[in-house]
Every structure is written in structure tokens, then in C-alpha cells.
């Protein structure tokens, strides 16, 4: 497993990759006329929306570990910022 330092980057890259894969599948199904095509120029928008609708629940299920690692990374950063803020406030109060 790679470093937890890059958990957010890894999750984002996997999420984008999953969306691109879903878009490719939707595009292939539309090209093969398995799913209906939209009217005119709306075809691309239709396929993008369908790929979003498909990739969202898939990422919720398939990327659970990466999302949890990202959450832990963010919580740790927020906790460090709170500690720094509290230390700064304590130093300012000591000067008054």
C-alpha cells in the first residue's frame, strides 16, 4: 500500500478513472445502439450525465478504502491546524 500522504490524490485519480471507464462503456453502448442516442448535439451531454449517474454509486462501493484513507488524512490535517491555532491564540493571550 502506498503512503497515506497521497490518499486524496489517489482517491481523486481513481474516481476520475472510474468516471472515464463508465463514459467509455456508455459511449460503446450508444455506438452499438444498445442504449438510445439523444437528439442532436445533446448526445454528448446525455452520455456524460449517464456516466456520472453510473460512476457515483460504483465509486461509493468500490473506493471505500481509499475514501476512508482520504478522510483520515483530512482529519489529521484539520486537527494539526486546530492545535496550531490554539497555540497561537495562547501566545497572543499571554502577551495581553
From TrEMBL:
Sequence intervals crossing the membrane: 12-32, 44-63
Keywords annotated in UniProt: Membrane, Transmembrane, Transmembrane helix
Top-level taxon: Bacteria
InterPro entries: DUF4229
Protein name: DUF4229 domain-containing protein
Pfam families found in the cross-reference section: DUF4229
Amino acid at each position: 500500500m502506498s503512503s497515506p500522504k497521497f490518499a486524496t490524490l489517489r482517491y481523486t485519480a481513481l474516481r476520475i478513472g472510474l468516471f472515464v471507464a463508465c463514459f467509455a462503456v456508455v459511449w460503446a453502448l450508444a455506438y452499438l445502439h444498445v442504449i438510445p442516442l439523444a437528439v442532436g448535439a445533446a448526445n454528448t451531454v446525455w452520455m456524460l450525465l449517464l456516466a456520472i449517474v453510473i460512476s457515483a454509486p460504483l465509486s461509493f462501493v468500490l473506493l471505500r478504502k481509499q475514501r476512508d484513507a482520504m478522510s483520515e488524512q483530512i482529519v489529521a490535517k484539520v486537527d494539526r491546524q486546530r492545535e496550531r491555532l490554539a497555540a497561537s491564540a495562547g501566545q497572543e493571550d499571554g502577551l495581553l
